[in-house]
Amino acid sequence: MSCNPKVAQKVKSAINHFAPAHSLIRNRQGVSLVVSNMILIAAVIAVGFAALLYAQSSSNNYVADYGQTVNADIAKLKEVIAFEYVYYDANLDKLFIYFMNAGDISGVTIESIFISIPQTFEEFQVKDLEGNEAGSLGIGDEAYIVLQNIVLADNEYYTVKLTTGRGSIFAQSFMS
Amino acid sequence: MHRALCLKGRKRLNRRGLSSIVGAIFMVLIVWSLASGYFYFTITQNTNYNEAVRQKNQLDIARMSENIQAVNSSYIIETNGFVTVRAKMQNIGSSAVKLLNLWVHVVENPGGANLDAYNFYPVGITLQAGERWEQDFVVSVTGVSTSGSYAFSAWFISGKGNTITLRQVNNEEIVVSQTTQGIGALAMDFQEFRYYRVNPDRSIVNFPAGSSGYTVTTGTGNPIAFKIILTNLNYQTKSDIVLQADSVFFSIFPTTAQQVRGSYWYIVNVNEQGIISTTYSNIVLRYNVPTAVYFASANAIKGGASFSSSSPGYTGTSPINLALIGTKGGQPFGQNIPFVSVLVS
């Protein structure tokens, strides 16, 4: 069978026109390179996103902790306890501590009391001036604590320190 | 041409570097987002903390700016079990101060029952900047009695937690400095002895300045009134002295060698506008409080009698006596203060 030379010429030019595809189709080694590159790129993108998400969540945890620490410090900064009166009853061996929340934050609790005997108390009742038990002090609230079985020397200076639940310490001196 | 095309194709096909570029881009993205986010958050938290510190400092400044003076305080036990604290306060600071509680501590002097008691009184007063305040506070203190001898201490607690100590009046200074001015429970202020002309409508001329009471120049027929500053020096009990209508300011004019003549002015009430009241209400002299007392009536204003003006009636030098009648601590009281002389012309 003989080929029309003009037709053959046309086919040849068409083939040459699609030479890259033609060479691609002929050269199957180039196809696997492209595919593998595309897969590699996809994998990098996926791993990159995963890494980004992981880093974000780790940093979120860290900044949350940091934020809590700063907020706790700010709350501690706002606490102020003002002592109204500290009275020692030598006949009853009792120490009466009257104080108020003179700060700018509510929810003030007393965690422990230290007296320069030295002695630390962690079990006691905080009561308002009417004698009712007070859980925490709001802004401007007044309260008192009575410590029992306190033996102090006569006419001596002592210091009482109140430690709040947020870690602030307030001290007052008194004479027995 | 085919060769050129092949070369181009080789370059397009060699894309192994693309994944590295993409990986590098992601790494930069991760680092940038972490760093910027953390940096911004840290800045925000530091700003919050600095703001809290600033507010704390402002609170401390406000607390330090509170300045209340409580002077000339006195303590009286008028009823067993209660201590009356008289406090004069002035806010000399720049901000209003709220006084929450008044604390009183009472210790019995040696020789007694060794009482050592305290209590507090909810005050709830707000003093504006520059405001003065004087008030009696009756504080219940178990065990105190009117017959006991005690040492007192008292203090206010302000809303910002400051303590304002009440300074007790120095009784020794009062007794020593005012002994020459009077003997007994009442003292007269010689510098503030004034007299006034009285109009028919009971108004006092040139009130409250008046003229020196030592030289009366209105003659004999013009009604006049006298003002005397009296101070209650009842140191022992510090109770009130009440002057009744029978208290009188009387003068003795030695008109002849054989006979003397008297003129008198009974105690009256004068209001802030300088008008003499037709009736009389007892005047209370509180402990260590100088009080202006006026004498102007020709008769004691009691038992239905009303005010009637009084004039000297005579001229010349006249010794003056203050015959005061009333009660002291609820008990009958009388004192004569004979320390001034007047020249009537």
How would you describe the overall organization of this protein?
The complex is a heterodimer of chains A (176) and B (345). In chain A, a hairpin with a 4-residue loop joins strand 7 and strand 8. Chain A has a four-stranded antiparallel beta sheet, with no helix packed on it. A four-stranded antiparallel beta sheet of chain A has the order 4-3-7-8, with no helix packed on it. In chain A, helix 2 packs across helix 3. Chain A is α+β, with helices and mostly antiparallel strands and 176 residues long. The mean pLDDT of chain A is 86. In chain A, 41% of the residues lie in helices and 28% in strands. Chain A is rod-shaped and about 135 Å long. Chain A is built from three helices and eight strands, in the order αααββββββββ. Chain B is an alpha+beta fold and 345 residues long. In chain B, strands 8, 9, 10, 11, 12, 13, 14, 15, 16, 17 and 18 form an eleven-stranded mixed beta sheet that branches. Chain B has a four-stranded antiparallel beta sheet with strand order 4-3-6-7, with no helix packed on it. A three-stranded antiparallel beta sheet of chain B has the order 1-2-5, with no helix packed on it. The longest helix of chain B is centred in the N-terminal third of the chain and has 48 residues. Chain B starts with a helix and ends with a strand.
Fold topology:
The complex is a heterodimer of chains A (176) and B (345).
Chain A: H1 5-17, H2 19-26, H3 28-78, E1 81-89, E2 94-101, E3 110-115, E4 119-121, E5 126-128, E6 142-147, E7 157-164, E8 169-175
Antiparallel strand pairs in A: 1-2, 2-6, 3-4, 3-7, 5-6, 7-8
Chain B: H1 2-13, H2 17-64, E1 68-79, E2 82-91, E3 97-108, E4 116-127, E5 132-140, E6 150-158, E7 163-165, H3 171-178, E8 186-197, E9 211-212, E10 215-216, E11 224-232, E12 241-243, E13 248-253, E14 261-268, E15 283-285, E16 291-297, E17 316-328, E18 331-344
Parallel strand pairs in B: 10-18
Antiparallel strand pairs in B: 1-2, 2-5, 3-4, 3-6, 6-7, 8-9, 8-11, 11-16, 12-15, 12-17, 13-14, 13-17, 14-16, 17-18
